[in-house]
Amino acid sequence: MSISLEDVSMLLKIPVTGKVVAVENFARYTDESHSDAIKLVSKLLGVSIEDAEEEVNIGKGLTVRKCWLNSRWCPKAGARNTTYPPVECTARAYLLYLLSCTLFADKSGSRVSIALLKLLEDLDDVGKYAWGAAALAYLYRHLGSATRVQVSQIAGYLTLLEGWVYEHFKLGFATPNAKYMDYVQRRVCRWVQRHETVMNLDKVESIRRTLDGLRPSEVRFYALLETKCCI
């Protein structure tokens, strides 16, 4: 039993079919991809080549900082001499930040892949991508990495994983969202997210024992499909 595209569609209400989410030019770091990244940041975010080069060089890779996006496109209220970039550039900056905080969150929590920016070049095409399928593949890849002994962190959209667990397993620690509005909010909003930055070993072992001791009657195999049939 694992997360399916059907689960993603029901929980997040984002497309799981459509154009493939892939950018070949930025698959790995080379002198050419580094140069292309600088030009792309300058063109799509409306900054000078010099500013784009400085930012890309800070990360020594094909990324930009989230704090840089914030300072450039979310100036503080009341700031003087503020120059606002074109609407299209602002929209791309916002979407880039959003994707990096949700579907494609990385372990750093502070950087954004420039490969995502390439997908935002044509704003009319943004809604045509299979974002849900890409997010699931990205999560699976990092779940696989997280099983290694030496790995202590995980990347991916953990809200998706958390919501899926709450829907399918009766673990006793899921907190329903009293303000959840069916048919208005995404299904994943039905649960209150946990925000524990540190979890003690005893709690981890307790959860493991609960999972290991689950009986078939405590697993809702078709939880989301049952919900879909009722709509």
What does this structure look like?
The protein is an all-alpha fold and 231 residues long. Helices cover 47% and strands 3% of the residues. The protein has 2 domains: 22-128, no CATH class; 158-230, no CATH class. Strands 1-2 form a two-stranded antiparallel ribbon. Helix 2 packs across helix 3 (49-59).
| Overall helicity | 40-55%
Radius of gyration: 20 Å
What would you call the shape? globular
Strand order of the largest sheet: 1-2
Helix and strand sequence = HHHEHHEHHHHH
- Tell me, rounded to a whole number, the average pLDDT: 85
Tell me the distance between the termini: 24 Å
Class derived from helix and strand content: mainly alpha
Count of helix runs: 10
Low-confidence stretches: none
* Main beta sheet strand tally, sense and closure: 2 strands, antiparallel
Strand content is under 5%
The structural domain count equals 2
Strand tally: 2
GO biological process, one term: meristem maintenance
Protein name: Aminotransferase-like plant mobile domain-containing protein
InterPro entries: AminoTfrase-like_pln_mobile, MAIN-like
Domain Aminotransferase-like plant mobile: 1-221
